[in-house]
Specification:
The complex is a heterotrimer of chains A (537), B (281) and C (323). Chain A is an alpha+beta fold and 537 residues long. Helix content of chain A is 29%, strand content 21%. About 1% of the residues of chain A have low confidence. Chain B is mostly helical and 281 residues long. Chain B is 72% helix and 0% strand. The two termini of chain B are 24 Å apart. In chain C, a hairpin with a 4-residue loop joins strand 1 and strand 2. By secondary structure, chain C is mainly alpha-helical. Chain C is 80% helix and 1% strand. In chain C, strands 1-2 form a two-stranded antiparallel ribbon. In chain C, helix 6 runs antiparallel to helix 7, helix 9 crosses helix 11 and helix 12 packs antiparallel against helix 13. Classes of the chains: A alpha+beta (537), B mainly alpha (281), C mainly alpha (323). At the A-C interface, helix 1, strand 10, helix 6 and helix 12 of A face helix 6 and helix 9 of C.
């Protein structure tokens, strides 16, 4: 028998290694997808999680001495640490202290503390911790609180503390009792360098949340609810602070990947249509025209008033803020505030009047610009890039009134340095804190570059000092109203506008704006009390 | 060298496209005040207007006319582009030729510096300097040219070296011609093609850098620039405005860079016959 | 010999950068310590710390001593302390470095590979329809500045279509591990990677295409054709491989160009790499971080170029024997 040898035809196209690897790769990818899809059908009980969007992301390690010196830094710390008193949407509420009274004879406050509070590590909270904190801040000042206000802290029993003030201080609750975080004595005793204390123990507080993770490079924070919180376990189990660029926040909120965040005004109706809730912040921030009142011709009150008449603040709001702001009141305090004085001189837009004032001061109009003794009147206006459009508007308005303006934008640090050294004519700045009238002291006679540093008016100085020590609310309001009138007369700086600020959220947590801002006046609706309840979707 | 540039260009569609576009940009830049319907920096209360008969490209966040900004932006880009490239080319011509002619230690030192600078990424230096010294337009041009001449210098030196060996140069030298005379009468004219390629690519680099720096926010914020327009528009990308605010400067920028690239590519091809054995048309 | 001459070159380049880093803050008007650390930092410093820093930087000594002091602090790995980030500069940088390496590394590899393949296809038959369309397409692409490409992709796919995330490198606190985490990273990486790659294909493409011209004229191509080898083999194994050399070596230089590109792309996509760090440090005028990052970036580029130079001579025997 012969075997027929069949010629097995060789495959023309050999299976190329390329095709094989491609096939394997696709297979691997499909497997991956399947795995992830399967793993998503996870646990039956998912923790209630809430994600907050933030443009900056990293605000420092959320311990009292390591968070960055800005509002959001304090807020992140405030979820972990409690203060003696706190605030909700209507005013002061108890926190670590359940009752308090003022002893005017001793100029002291007695705080009766809660007896059911524990630190995150289980140790019990007592008056010792409060006394320790006040003493500690004398050695290591806490950045937001003036340590000299409390002269002596005494624990009269295990849950009572008596704080003697060095002088009567009206905003004690806002500035001190409602701001100073209480530190655990058993951890912080012996810490010599609190700014470098970044161990796990540094974030142990009495607050409703514990720090689970903090990533500096991703700018994210993960907080987990503290089940033994004295108000009960917060309804939101997990709180996430996540970094995302400002302009992406609307898309993220609408898409549902984040639950709350700062919203620009133009998309409010869109957000509401998508089912989100939009809340409006009360006015607490202003942009100011800082004037160098040490220098001719700005040292003349009338001249400064002329500037106010020449700038149409309503138009400024319309053009540079697209209508999303309120025109500034020359008394600094916004018209919506309880402290506002409706009789504050407003300097309604009147360029003709401005020109008359300048003529009275000896200036003459030549080719549309004012001159005196044959030198043209030129003022230098410096701003940071952020206020570029505002600066341009001010320049245009002043020049239309006949005052030539040399307008320049510079780095923040350069402008700060120039202003501090009085090497400027006009500058544009912004600052917040307008809830509490003590801001008037900081911004009129205070030392920072934000402040007008104006001490020339004795009446004003006296009024400012008095308002801090006036413990009677009614009297204090009167004094503050007087301050606004005098300040608006003197006009060492001119408030230009108060911007409208909005936050949008998905409604599962009832975010609110705290009365007079969180702690010393932070205008952000992230009050820890809101997270005690969860509405679900 | 005898290169028939006109012929090259006539056959090449790329080049034609590039030249036409660049000329168009130049015209727009030169006649900006006549062409722009509004002052580019005049604020109005009508922000975020979509394109209309009043404002062909709408308005931005403070009511400024985008079309006018676009037109004046051409000015900035082309001004910076041409000036920086011109300065850089002049510098590279002088330094390259002098290195070739003088030779010796001078040549060695210059070339070391040149090579060292070529390796360093320019953006690093620019950012560093801009962080300390906020550059005005002219400082920027100076900076760009100081960082742009090195590449050309090398090529020019190589060419000058080969030219030096040629007959007419040695003849002139033997007649007592000074180096300066040699440079301007003999070498530079022959280097003209190379210089023009360097010039064109220098323009491209400078325009890109200027837009990039304006986009970063390092440049002077009061100058109208395409990069700055894009940066400002990006801040509002959650609205619809990007369509008429972000796209036009981006497209204008891309088209300008493209046109310059095409011209440069054609010139390069004209110079290097090996590359263009079959004409691409 | 080749390497030593070039080594001197790289040392000079490094010296220039160091000199620039050294000179700039000291040339600024005012307190050099403020220029080095920024004003906000200065406010936070205690007088003892300031005195210590003045001594460490020899700020009251003649300039050459200052330069020596500056160099010695660098050699100890001390890039300074950032008061804005409240951490040593080196630590801040190392936190961001992996993301940039991921982005740039992948983009470099993909864009070079794609450029080579397209360049080979194009160069194989010049003036063919394929060549013309590829050339036009890629040249048009090269005209778009990096940040514009990034913006277009972001708006198109991220905002309008919403299929890619809008910023960041990962979804924070997602609880993903293993494959899911890798996928999440890829998801965030996709758009910036695409943008960066698209911008840099052109370079490798053009170089490959041009090299193909010279390669195609070589005798061995004629031999290959005479041998009757298939088109594919000729194109890739013979022509392509020889056209490879300049492109691969050029990839090192491409790295330097990518530094510019990645800066803009990271900003547009808020990708937490070194590029974004530079931008943040610029905004905050955090000079220590700025100097530190730029120093490291410049050095990396130099080192990459140096390695390429060294390997170039090893890869191409003709170069070695020529010397």
């Amino acid at each position: 028998m012969f075997q027929v040898r069949y010629k097995i035809p060789r495959l023309k196209t050999r299976i190329s290694p390329l095709k094989v690897s491609l096939a394997l790769l696709t297979l691997a990818l499909v497997c991956c997808l399947l795995v992830t899809a399967c793993s998503e059908t996870g646990q039956p009980l998912e923790p209630v999680s809430y994600t907050i969007a933030d443009d900056t992301g990293d605000w420092g390690y959320p311990s009292p001495y390591t968070h960055y010196a800005r509002g959001p830094g304090y807020i992140r710390m405030s979820f972990l640490f409690d203060t003696l008193v706190w605030k909700d949407a209507s005013g002061f509420v108890s926190a670590l202290a359940k009752e308090w009274e003022y002893i005017s004879a001793d100029n002291a406050y007695i705080f009766k503390l809660r007896d059911d509070v524990t630190w995150h590590d289980g140790v019990e909270f007592t008056a010792e911790d409060v006394v320790f904190t006040f003493n500690y801040t004398k050695e290591h000042p806490f950045q937001w609180v003036d340590g000299s206000i409390v002269a002596l802290a005494e624990a009269t029993d295990e849950y009572t503390v008596k704080l003697y003030l060095s002088k009567p201080y009206a905003p004690f609750f806002q500035d001190v009792a409602g701001t100073l975080p209480i530190l655990p004595k058993h951890i912080w005793e012996g810490i010599e360098e609190p700014e470098k204390f970044v161990a796990k123990e540094a974030v142990i507080g009495t607050g409703p949340y514990k720090l689970a993770d903090y990533s500096k490079e991703h700018g994210s924070y993960l907080y987990k609810a503290y089940s033994d919180y004295y108000l009960g376990k917060p309804a939101v189990d997990e709180l996430k602070f996540v970094k995302i660029s400002k302009e992406m926040i609307p898309a993220a909120l609408k898409g549902g990947s984040m639950d709350a965040g700062d919203t620009p005004p133009e998309v409010i109706s869109e957000m509401e249509e998508a089912g989100l809730t939009v809340i409006t912040a009360p006015y607490a921030w202003n942009a100011k025209l800082t004037i160098n009142h040490q220098k001719e011709p700005l040292s003349s009150k009338q001249f400064r008033q002329a500037l106010a008449y020449a700038i149409d603040r309503e138009a400024l709001v319309q053009i540079t803020q697209r209508g999303h702001a309120m025109a500034g009141s020359p008394g600094m305090i916004p018209p919506t505030s309880d402290w506002y004085n409706p009789d504050t001189p407003q300097y309604e837009y009147d360029p003709a009047r401005a020109q008359r004032v300048l003529e009275e001061l000896g200036y003459g109009l030549e080719n549309g610009y004012f001159t005196k003794d044959s030198t043209e009147l030129v003022l230098e206006l410096v701003t940071i890039a952020r206020f570029k459009e505002v600066g341009q508007f001010v320049k245009q308005q002043l020049e239309a009134a006949g005052i030539k303006i040399d307008f320049r934008t510079m780095e923040d640090k350069t402008v700060d340095a120039k202003v501090l050294a009085w090497q400027f004519d006009l500058a544009i700045y912004g600052h917040g804190g307008l809830h509490e009238p003590s801001i008037l002291n900081k911004m009129i006679t205070g030392e920072g570059f934000n402040s007008a540093r104006y001490h020339a008016d004795e009446t004003l100085n006296e009024l400012l000092e008095n308002q801090l020590t006036e413990m009677d609310q009614g009297n204090r309001v009167n004094i503050v109203r007087q301050i606004q009138e005098v300040y608006a007369e003197d006009l060492p700086a001119l408030t230009l506008y108060y911007p409208n600020w909005y936050w949008a959220h998905d409604g599962s947590v009832e975010l609110f704006y705290t009365k007079d801002g969180i702690a010393f006046g932070i205008p952000i609706p992230l009050n820890k009390l809101a997270f005690m309840e969860y509405k679900g979707m | 060298m005898h290169i028939n540039l006109k012929e090259e260009v006539k056959q090449n569609n790329f080049a034609k496209f590039g030249i036409v576009l660049l000329l168009l940009m130049l015209v727009i830049a030169l006649f900006a005040p006549l062409l722009a319907p509004y002052q580019p920096n005049s604020q109005t209360p009508f922000a975020f207007e979509p394109p209309s008969s009043n404002h062909w490209l709408g308005t931005n966040h403070v009511g400024k006319d985008i079309l006018s900004q676009l037109i004046y932006g051409a000015r900035t880009s082309l001004l910076v582009g041409f000036s920086a490239a011109l300065l850089a080319t002049i510098l590279s011509a002088i330094i390259g030729t002098s290195a070739a002619l003088i030779a010796g230690l001078y040549d060695k030192i210059i070339m070391r510096i040149v090579d060292a600078f070529i390796i360093i990424p320019a953006i690093v230096i620019i950012i560093l300097v801009a962080a300390y010294v906020k550059p005005s337009l002219w400082v920027l041009i100076l900076l760009l040219s100081l960082l742009g001449w090195q590449g050309g210098a090398r090529i020019i030196r190589a060419q000058a070296l080969s030219l030096k060996e040629m007959g007419h140069i040695s003849a002139a030298q033997s007649f007592g011609a000074s180096n300066v005379y040699l440079t301007f009468r003999h070498i530079l004219p022959d280097l003209a093609p190379i210089l023009s390629v360097e010039f064109i690519y220098g323009i491209r680099r400078a325009i890109f850098m200027e837009a990039g720096l304006a986009f970063l926010g390092i440049a002077d914020p009061t100058t109208v620039s395409w990069g700055m327009m894009m940066r400002e528009a990006l801040d509002f990308c959650y609205l619809d405005v990007w369509q008429w605010w972000l796209l036009p400067p981006g497209i204008a920028l891309s088209l300008t860079i493209l046109s310059v690239t095409f011209i440069g590519h054609t010139l390069e091809g004209a110079l290097d016959p090996r590359l263009e054995s079959e004409a691409i048309a | 010999m080749f390497s030593i001459r070039n080594l001197a070159l790289y040392l000079i380049a490094m010296l220039i950068i160091l000199a620039l880093n050294f000179l700039l803050p000291r040339m600024m008007p005012g307190d050099p310590l403020m220029a080095i650390y920024g004003e906000e930092a200065l406010v936070q410093m205690t007088p003892e710390l300031k005195a210590e820093l003045v001594e460490r930087f020899a700020l009251d000594q003649p300039w050459w001593q200052q330069f020596a002091a500056y160099l010695s602090t660098l050699f100890t790995g001390d890039l300074g302390y950032s008061y804005y980030y409240n951490a040593p500069v080196l630590e801040v940088i190392l936190g961001r470095l992996p993301w940039t390496l991921l982005l740039v590394g992948t983009a470099l590899i993909i864009s070079t590979l794609l450029g080579i393949v397209l360049g080979i296809e194009s160069g194989w038959r010049r003036s063919s329809q394929r060549d013309k369309s590829l050339l036009t397409g890629l040249m048009a692409l090269s005209g778009f500045p990096d940040f514009f490409v990034g913006i277009l992709l972001l708006i198109g796919f991220g905002i309008t279509l919403g299929i890619f995330p809008l910023s960041g490198a990962i979804t924070p606190y997602s609880g993903f591990t293993g494959a899911a985490l890798a996928l999440d990273i890829l998801h965030h990486l996709f758009l910036p990677l695409t943008a960066l790659t698209l911008c840099h294909i052109g370079g490798s493409y053009l170089l490959t295409r041009n090299t193909m011209v010279t390669v195609l004229k070589k005798p061995y191509m004629l031999v290959a054709r005479a041998k009757g080898l298939s088109e594919f083999v000729m194109r890739y194994r013979h022509a392509g491989r020889n056209a490879l050399l300049p492109v691969i070596t050029r990839a090192g230089i491409q790295l330097g160009r990518m530094v510019t590109g990645v800066l803009f792309i990271e900003i547009v996509f808020a990708y937490p790499g070194l590029g974004h760090l530079v931008y943040e440090a610029l905004l905050a005028r955090d000079y220590p971080v700025l100097q530190g990052v730029l120093l490291i970036v410049a050095f990396s580029v130099l080192i990459a170029d140096f390695l390429v130079d060294v390997s170039y001579s090893k890869l191409d025997p003709r170069i070695r024997y020529a010397h």
